[in-house]
């Protein structure tokens, strides 16, 4: 089972590595980081580089596609090479997934029309422009499309998917192995839970925190 | 404020990238991935590579040290270059931190003697051999040493530290920006919560899931 995780300039690292760390533990998984060019791909802050081991066209038919988000997503919205690859890969895939603003790339490729989907809470409204139906849930499954909300939500998305593919018992083993028993020191992780003033502040100047 | 994240062969990717994604958002943070040699460093499964942008000796006095764990930690326990660097860096640091079996490297460097500390639940007992006092908590702070339990716990550790350094309001902004509102599909993320049979299975054959 081949899992392709797409990298592009200025992606958000946890969007890619969170799902990776869960999905790579699916029995029979072969995980491949792909990019337009092979080699190091810098993240949204420029101080982290993950290596794309293969070009997109070397991995044309993965079983699972994972598209992270990040500030760099904007520049990719008109990247025909990437959008074409997403369409081709999706035609072969069993599961097509995204984290954060990665769903906007799936949407721009025309894959989410009429589908329920999610994204980073600050980007959620943008999905509708592509004919998707935005929902504020953390993990949204519609057919073979599994989209996750912002950054850290890819972990929940991927663990959910491990359960669908390999069964609940295996997914629980992955959860225990990665000691995924989250205990955030605050309860401000969604716009419904954070102080309203903080939500407004991020809405007004979101780049400071997203970048 | 310089944050050094240590990479070594066969580290666990989320151990490093989870804390990174939180800590890099501390005001004034400059994050540097360091390794014995600069260049790509492969993780525990060999299918992910993060780039070490600097050699250890190029970053002798970081403000924060982050040591991930992973199966590769075992081979590092007698790596004098790394252990020497940990001691030197710790002498200058404001915070010295670890995730998962990274705490065993801090312990091997002699830094956790008489300190309360944690590690991956399967490795917890090993801490005592180095004079540390193992505790099963997810995030343990003892003086300037902040150790986290397995893999995913580095996110909680780092967000806790962001709060200590930059204040609760900023840490909540980071939590909201990264939409860290975890909703695991199962409740099996610690040996106290997972089915006993599963805990026994991982104890018996832990390599299958940790590797």
Describe what this molecule looks like in 3D.
- Two copies of one chain form a homodimer.
- Chain A has 211 residues and is of the alpha/beta class.
- The first copy, chain A, has one domain: Rossmann fold.
- In chain A, 34% of the residues lie in helices and 20% in strands.
- Chain A has helices at 13-23, 73-76, 80-92, 102-108, 153-166, 168-177, 196-204, 207-210, and strands at residues 2-6, 30-35, 39-42, 49-52, 54-55, 64-67, 95-99, 116-117, 133-134, 139-142, 145-148.
- The first copy, chain A, has a seven-stranded mixed beta sheet with strand order 5-2-1-6-7-11-10, with helices on both faces.
- In chain A, helix 5 (153-166) packs across helix 6 (168-177).
- The first copy, chain A, is globular.
- Chain A starts with a strand and ends with a helix.
- The model of chain A has no long low-confidence stretch (mean pLDDT 96).
- Chains A and B meet through helix 1, strand 2, strand 4, helix 5 and helix 6 of A and helix 1, strand 2, strand 4, helix 5 and helix 6 of B.
